[in-house]
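Problem: given the chain below (391 residues), write out its structure.
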Amino acid sequence: MPIPFIDLKAQLAVLEPEIRRRMDAVLAHGKFIMGPEVAELETDLAAFAGARHAVTCASGTDALLMPLLAWGIGPGDAVFTTPFTFIATAEVIALLGATPVFVDIDPRTYNIDPARLELAVAAVAAQDPTLHPLPMTAMTHKLKPKAVIPVDLFGLPADYDALGAVAREHGLLVLEDAAQGFGGVYKGKKAGALGAAGATSFFPAKPLGCFGDGGAVFTDDDALADVLRSIRVHGKGGHKYDNVRVGLNCRLDTLQAAVLLAKLPAFPGELDARDAVAARYGAGLAGLPGVTLPVVPEGCRCAWAQYTLSLAGHDRDAVAAALREAGVPSMVYYPKPLHTQTAFAGLGHAPEDFPESLAASARVLSLPMHPYLAADVQDVVIGAVGKALQG
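Solution.
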């Protein structure tokens, strides 16, 4: 029987009674939009993350878009982010008419490189692509550096001390993309609470997922939280037909809040279980030639949204095919960096502009990872990887 890449059915088997109890309560009271479970969840999420406010919304993409909209980011603004991520991170920048300025990654962590961010800001200010690769817009129009969106890729928080130092020096707002990182920790602080605002996703496959789309924004800024609550309901003011700004329709459904309320108490134990799976993988896969295992820097905790190998010197497609033949699924996140995507062709980048992202996209392979992955199944995965590398 094939091994699930992410086993949501195993989780449901454990949590189903509480999930059904919570969903049945919503069906009974019938408040499907902004019902009481939404406010309850926001209180619990804020407490978990160590933030003053959690503002839920309809998706992780909305959670990224809302703070940028609240900060007034738009045409003429430069927002820095990594090209080695899902398109939503840069998509929200472009949707507001701002310009994504890509910054290459640290090849050890796959997260945005603070030293390269410093160069990118200097290049934008000087309109000098010899300092750092720039989009064509930055060379024809003087852009104003406004924000940076680090991504906690594969569940590992970025280096927020170093990034924060660059951001403070240049007046950049930091929007943490914790879509994969929720549950992670950086030097004693929880993911989601590591920037001026933090965005996460509750897509079902995320470390904490609901039964559809969902997201949340975390912040300690009272004024920002008030604006975010307005934005998610069409820019609502004092009442439904008092619209004080142009906003969105991006509320979290009450039923999804109910699912998350049932899952959140189990989340700390699931994070421990993910740690145990990662440790077993690490012990079993250590020393394989041409394989680099994930790195978790001191003072960090990874949420292990994915367990990702780097396969330098191996034919990744052949390894993936051998795993598939053995009943072991694998995934590639992400086979095309954003600067090579058609959607961003107008920025005018060459593939080699961001060599670390390009190299990672050709080497990474993610293995099954979830908190209900039994030890004997992990051993099957470990054995299959070793055999596949010999083929």
